[in-house]
Specification:
Blueprint (H helix, E strand, L loop, with lengths): L2 H4 E4 L3 H7 L3 E6 L5 H12 L2 E10 L3 E4 L4 E4 L3 E10 L9
Pfam families: Ribosomal_L23 (PF00276)
GO cellular component, one term: ribosome
InterPro entries: Nucleotide-bd_a/b_plait_sf, Ribosomal_uL23-like, Ribosomal_uL23/eL15/eS24_sf
């Protein structure tokens, strides 16, 4: 698989910044990827050693959009919690 189909983007939120201090990083990943592919891709991109990967699936919500406020289903999102055994990823640049 290509790298951009496995990891879509890192999640940068208040919760993810708190988890990063513990060595856990959050990524939005493809819905058809598994833990082994995620770990291998993170190790390849960031040159770190992955200890474990946990996955959650967040179901898409129904949103009302447009001028007529029609209902639209948002897509499901798969979130990976990647724990590093050693090393650190610089997702939060210091300004």
């Amino acid at each position: 698989m290509k790298i951009n189909t496995v990891i879509h983007r890192p999640l940068i939120t208040e919760k993810s910044s708190q988890e990063a201090s513990k060595g856990v990083y959050l990524f939005e990943v493809g819905t058809d990827t598994n833990k082994h592919q995620i770990a291998q891709t993170v190790e390849e991109i960031y040159t770190v050693k992955v200890k474990s990967v946990k996955i959650t699936v967040r179901k898409g919500k129904e949103r009302r959009v447009g001028r007529k406020m029609k209902s639209k289903m948002m897509p499901d999102r798969k979130i990976a919690y990647v724990t590093l055994s050693q090393g650190e990823i610089d997702l939060f640049p210091k300004a």
